Amino acid sequence: MGTTHDADTAFIKALADLLKDSDLTEIEVSRRLGGDDKLEVRVSRQTIQQVVAAPTAAPAAAPMAAPAAAPAAPGAAAEVSSDPAQHPGAVTSPMVGTVYLQAEPGSPAFVSVGDTVSEGQTLLIIEAMKTMNQIPSPRAGKVTRIVVGDSEPVEFGAPLVVIE
After folding, report:
1. What domains lie within the chain, and their CATH numbers?
2. Which of 67, 80, 122, 147 is most exposed, with minimal Cβ within 10 Å?
């Protein structure tokens, strides 16, 4: 059983190396291993234009948020806060999976709104293919919003946390 895991890990690493060395942004492979066993792997590189559907949702939310925020803040600030995917401090999901905000049930959350985080600090975990993947902070700053809830499914490129 350990040999299969090692072979799977080597296969995934080879796919990641291929992705790094090529102009590809994503590789998806499905292998039948015998019987009902199969291995499904999706390796992708994060790009700047990740969320395509988000701009269509933003105009619907912006008119409602802009009038309430207009007296206190400029209209641009209201648009940024209404769509976390468009926020320059948004940390997006590098994979499809299930989000966990703490290491195990009952333990404290990795981060909370208002916390100051350092680059590389774990923000949350995404479980994908029964593997727990720690998602590190790409930069130092203050957590101003946690967009996802605990045990929620998340898609590739979806906003997770906003750090300013």
Report:
1. 2-44 (no CATH), 50-85 (no CATH), 87-163 (2.40.50.100)
2. 67
